[in-house]
Amino acid sequence: MSTSNDRRPTWPGGIAALLTQMEGRRDPIDYAPGEAPPPADLDFAPLAAQIVTDPYDDPAEAPPFRSSHHRKRHALRRELTGQSELVFLNALLIAHLRKRTFPDHLPALFLRLWREQGDHLLTRFDPRWLVSSVTTFGDHGETPTQRSVGLALTVLFGTMKLYESERLFSGLPPDRPFPADRRLNTHLPMQMDAYSIASGGLDVNMIGRLWTEAEADPLIRPLAHRLLDLLIHDDRTLFRRLMTMRARKAGKAEGGRTGDDEEPTQMAHDAESLRGRGVADNTRPAVETGTARMASDAGASPEPSDKSKARPDNPAPVPVDRRQIPADRLRWGLVATIRAPLPEIARFAAHHLALGAEALHIYLDAPEPGTQTFLERHPKLHVTACDAAYWQASGKPRPEAHQLRQAMNATRCLRETTETLDWLAHVDVDEFLLPQRPVAAILADVSPRHAVARIAPAEALAPETGWPSHFKLTHHHARQPKAVLQDIYPTFGAHLYGGFLSHTSGKIFARTGIPDTRLGIHTLKYNGLEATNRARLDTLRLAHLHAPSWQHFRDHLAFRQEKGSYRPRSQRVEMGQANLIAFLLEEEGEAGLRLLFDEVCADTPELRARLAAHDMLLSADFDPDAEVRRIFGALP
Asked: How does pLDDT run across 73-91, given as a tens digit for each residue?
């Protein structure tokens, strides 16, 4: 702790030396004969459609450099190759306006650019350039709000860069919180009290005040709100780490587990405990999410891992031309290997076409006459019959396991859609996207560094008649402690992970155009290992109609036990679907299965109320038959 007798400045020479060093980096940009800054009356409209080319291909831009202006232009055009000339203009103005002096008209030109072309710039800049832009508002804003918000955000993001850089020396990645049991009881700098992990509100107050301050100025508001929105959705920040630590602390206090990024705590429950409970001796309506809080790590697989081995960091490199695609130009599609009757396929296709899919690639695992002909009437449906000729042409024998056939087809599709799609999701015929806003807009907001975006599952509750309109989340994806499962499912909650009969890891969207990738059922592999640069899609769920009725559940039981999701394979200490169902069949027969279905799957007011009480209920208007009539004209 510093005292009056210990006043050694961090920078030798104190504030005077610091200011001198800062000014040394602000020498103005000079011009060679024939060069000039952009004029004050520059017409922005043509520049929006013009693309920056590689300066090495342009004799007028190539070295040797004639001036610092030429050098800066070259560096910026090299970095922004492929972007619009408006993006380059903004970057060039920022470079000038950081200097000690600059042409008098440039601040007004910068402000006019954002006033007239702000929407264009917001959809094309990565976060680093957005921060540079808001910093320039802090220096040259025309209103007090622009300058105050710009300066405040500059300090916030500058401080973040400093402490996140230092944190790299801890050996922990940015998305890994510090262990809660290693806290030191020592003084903070400047005699500050430590932030309270359990109840502190400093983080909320900081972000909230910045957000509301920006609302007062229509010019800086979109830029400031965009940056703050990116900040609160990034899973690698101090704010997210603190929230994860808070959730863990709360979970320990409750004796359960919250939605944290570690694997779930395993609890031993065997058949005897069951006996003790008496079982045996784009235009679609928005999803209602008031009772559906998002997961802190929807990308974390619930399968157990070997904690003694650290998962290697294996980011799949996102191509430059795929990093910043605005929603109005973003193309997304689905791939599915399907063995189902034509009406089921038509519902699946119509639902996703109505959401705005650019293409659906359907691989018919057991082609039936007429199916391909019916579907291919729609230009966005691309249907492949996986018959003997298909597998012979592939050069590989037909895999026995349908899961392997799915992965092979998905990987083939991922490679073949490089030029036609920006994102591709691998889903099944009984899975339906439920977005809160247009899917293209959701994917456009994914950070450029992420190659994978995970969709958390929502298992359908089975109504008495008609299509499901209520869906349940796992405790993990709703950020609830594991203990709530026994409140929601009194008999079976301790024996099923998340209370689900189906998979709990969800599915993924993967960016196309990345070499050496393979698209599996739940993951993207890069160079043979799972890609680790994953995002979570907070406003998109995957409705899974795993057991939409008792009859459907019963009809599919034998196949799922032999080849599907009810095969014994999990290492969890919970009994899991396979062991639980086998136990019920042996001990109770049909009555035991019906008891399981009624408690875990049936859409009853009581189950909905228990789910809603723990923010694990999601509701949505869902009528795929109506979409079939709208897309195809009639049910096949």
From this structure: 999 999 999 999 999 999 9
Q: How far apart are CA 627 and CA 86, in angstroms?
A: 41
Question: What CA–CA distance (Å, rounded) separates 293 from 613?
Answer: 12
Side chain identity, residue 19: L
Model confidence pLDDT, tens digit, residues 544-561: 999 988 898 888 888 777
Of the CA atoms within 13 Å of residue 516, those in its CB half-sphere come to 12
- Strands (DSSP E) contained in 478-633 are 507-511, 517-519, 524-526, 529-530, 534-544, 617-619
Token look-up 């599907």 returns 564
pLDDT tens, residue by residue, 505-518: 899 999 999 999 99
* Dihedral sign, Cα of residue 433, residue 176, residue 311, residue 570: negative
Distance CA 406, CA 521 (A): 7
CB contact burial 271-288 (16+ within 10 A = b; e otherwise): beebeeeebeeeebeebe
Whether residue 457 contacts residue 471, with contact meaning beta carbons closer than 8 Å, is answered with: no
* Angstrom distance (rounded) from CA 189 to CA 191: 5
* Burial classification of residue 123, based on how many CB atoms lie within 10 Å of its CB (0-12 exposed, 13-18 middle, 19 or more buried): middle
Please report the DSSP string for 601-633 in residue order. TB--HHHHHHHHHTTBEEE----HHHHHHHHHS
**Looking at residue 453, what DSSP letter applies?**
E
Residue 561's nearest CA partner among 578, 575, 585 is: 578
Instruction: Collapse the DSSP code of 308 into the 3-class scheme (helix H, G, I; strand E, B; otherwise coil) and give the result.
Output: coil
Q: What whole-number percentage of the chain has pLDDT above 90?
A: 61
* Both tokens assigned to 448: 């450029």
**Burial tier of 436 (Cβ tally within 10 Å: 0-12, 13-18, 19+):** middle
For 303, other C-beta atoms within 10 Å of its C-beta total 16
Whole-model pTM over 0.70: no
